Amino acid sequence: MKKKTFIMICLTVIFGMVLGPLQSVAAAEATWPSGIYPPPATGSFTSLNGVFDRVSTDSSMIMNGADEVGIELNPDATNQAGSMWSKNPIVDLTKSFKLEMPMFFGNNTISGADGMTFALAGTRPSAKGNSGPSLGAWGGQGGIGLKPENIAAQGLQNSFVVAIDTHKDDMDQNADYPGLNPNQQYIGSGYPGQASMYAIGLPLYKTQLKFTPTTQEPLQKFSDNIKDNVSNNLWHNLTVSWTTRPTGGTLNYQLTYRSGSGSKTTPSRSITWTKDQIKQIFGTDKVYLGFTSGTTSGLVLKYKEPHVLGIKSLADFNTVKGTVTLKRGNDNVTETTRLNIGDKLTYDYALDINNLDGRPWPATKIVLPKGEHLEYLKEDGTAAKAGDTLKIQVMIGSTTQTVDAVVQSDNLSAVISSDKLVLPKNTDSIVKFSLPAQVASHDLVSDQAVTDGAGTLTGGTPVKDYKLINTVDQTNNVKYVIAANPGELTLEKVPGFYFEKLGVSGLEDPTVADVINGIPGQNPFPVTSAGIDPTQWLNTLGRKTPAGYDGFISVKDSRPTKPGWTLSMKLSPFTRTEGGYVLGDNGNTDGGKAQIVLIDTNPQAQLKVASIKDNGNDTVVKSMPAGNSDWDLKDDSSTAPITQALMSIEKTPSVHGGKYSSTATWTLANAPQ
């Protein structure tokens, strides 16, 4: 039940007188420093800033100013064992990737040695490996009494390598050297920490690498001859890719090498691992990326060469995580949270882009969905419509910039498409922003469970889509319940009245004599407005609504079930403003002398709506049956409609002159009577 109380100005009595309201980051190719090594082809290498750290002091990053643009596993010196590894396990074997690596082996075509490896390892090595033919990865060269298990223990543990071997040694007896006088270089693959990788050659107990898989050795390992000498002062390209499959994945590798006769390739090799084999090899599916190398000393010739490489792109190892949290106040919204009309909400977004690559990472598009019963809010607090632009303050690290999000034509999402959101190279960037929203008005008669998408982030080079994650349940959805609309029963307007009489010269204030003699009204009450005799009533024809009051009665009912309602009114006794005299006989203060009749001037309606005496008793003005809702009582004026009313007053000989008023109390009950 709701009540509103208003002062109703009702009567003036006269005696002789009238009493009465990212910074944009430009993309640029990495450049090679001038100096000891010729540059690889432009675009074939990228900045590696902060991704790798050396394990061996024989290794170093190749710098161009502040940029790390390549890796020198070892200089052109003997007895080197290069080792350079990613600081973190950046290779996720549950995701596909491709690496292209330009490689340089110096210009020692006769005594160049010994080669370098591409390596993956489940644990990051803490010390460099063996030099010489071990290439910093394989186990040692053997010894009396040693077994394959002993050699494997000396090798790179929990690992797989692709080795480019540039000098034939005792370890390479099983490598692919076909025909007469072949080039004694090969590309091979295998598992340095696995005993199945090694054999012991007799009688000198020299280590021999085993490349040909057998049925007893299910882990595949290959060896392929390189037909032209790659220690020729030219850059060559090793490509390694990994394709995930439901049961594991397949690794492919191939070397493209250059010589005076043009470019050639080694056979493309594919090695498939099951998930169990991945665990057997690495112990994990998150592995480190590394490179190793080795050179030897010789009695006559110095078996040495530099081992240098670059990486075309690390983009496939970028990690992109985006989250959203829908909140009401300080509370997270869950799938059981009931959201009511008008609830203020906030979508909090956080994007973590760990860009390992040497090119900036453009966030080209961010789609921010919402449900049909929610609406985004603009800066001024009003609801956004389709086509509106929302100004969003985006924090990148410690800097803030403004980007635009456009509400889409279906009004179910806003989209950020901005060239401003370009994140720096070789950097882990945290991007945060929020979007205010509210529950819109609706007519749902029962609670409705809702599942919205959490959103998508599109960006990078090449461009990829990343689904955002709801922090509440770690899914790609935002879930909640839209509570049924209980609706609202509202007494929106109630009028104030100013009554006058129709005199000879028009409308005027009644006199004391009029009240002494009484203002009788009409009995029976007229059926139509044409039957009203204005000389028998005080009336509101002057349309004088007291300042601060409404002109007419208005009830609004937005309850979906429309159960009906009752509006009642009671009048306090009319009382003289000065002195407190109550309109009555000889000091009687019970009232009841005056009666107001509310009328409906609509020709299709019943003229008399209700009669209310000024005795403090409740009188039903309107009982709205179930199935109906709103009601206005007003005349047909298009500019300032009012509720029309008439007043009668019984004879009151003891009336005092002055201004009289009565308080009207309106009661709106939520059911019909």
From TrEMBL:
The UniProt record lists the keyword Transferase: no
Task: Quote the Gene3D superfamilies the UniProt record gives.
Answer: 2.60.120.200
- Tell whether Transferase is among the UniProt keywords: no
The record's annotation in Pfam families points to: Lectin_L-type_dom, WxL
- List, for all copies, the residue spans of the domain called WxL: 483-672
Alphabetic keyword roster: Signal
Q: Which residues form the signal peptide?
A: 1-26
Q: What protein name is recorded for this chain?
A: WxL domain-containing protein
Species of provenance: Lacticaseibacillus paracasei subsp. paracasei Lpp49
